[in-house]
């Protein structure tokens, strides 16, 4: 059985992520830092990438974006499971913000 090669899809996703990250950082840096889960040093690096370096970095075989949740409860809340979708989303945001604060400390 032949295994699929996802290199083109990974490159495309990485490039979209890096371009979005640059746009977000240039628009509203503090919100972008929170939403992307980046440190200030990494944000500075990404924001300063030239187009050529952005494409080169995106061509890496590693997937650059990563999930910000590491437990099932947060994943379920983000998927809208719970009493109602609005409160689940709010609860997920509160949990994610708490995790970001814990990691920064």
Note poorly predicted spans. none
What pattern of helices and strands is seen along the backbone? HHHHHH
**CATH architecture annotation of the largest domain:** Orthogonal Bundle
Secondary-structure content class: mainly alpha
Helix tally equals 6
CATH class of the largest domain: Mainly Alpha
Overall structural domain count: 2
The major β-sheet equals: none
Span from first to last CA? 47 Å
| Outline | flat
- Mean pLDDT across the residues is 84
CATH superfamily of the largest domain: Flagellar transcriptional activator FlhD
State the CATH topology of the largest domain: Flagellar transcriptional activator fold
Number of strands: 0
Rg of Cα set: 16 Å
Percent strand:
under 5%
Protein name: Flagellar transcriptional regulator FlhD
Subcellular location: Cytoplasm
InterPro entries: Flagellar_FlhD, FlhD_sf
Organism: Parazoarcus communis SWub3 = DSM 12120
Write the layout of secondary structure elements.
Layout: H1 7-27, H2 29-36, H3 40-47, H4 51-58, H5 72-78, H6 85-104
Helix pairs in contact: 1-2, 1-4, 5-6
Key phrases:
Flagellar transcriptional activator fold; flat; mainly alpha; 69% helix; 6 helices; 105 residues
Describe this structure in words.
With 105 residues, the chain is mainly alpha-helical. It has two domains: 1-66, Flagellar transcriptional activator FlhD (Flagellar transcriptional activator fold), CATH 1.10.4000.10; 69-105, no CATH class. 69% of the residues lie in helices and 0% in strands. It has helices at 7-27, 29-36, 40-47, 51-58, 72-78, 85-104. Helix 5 packs across helix 6 (85-104).
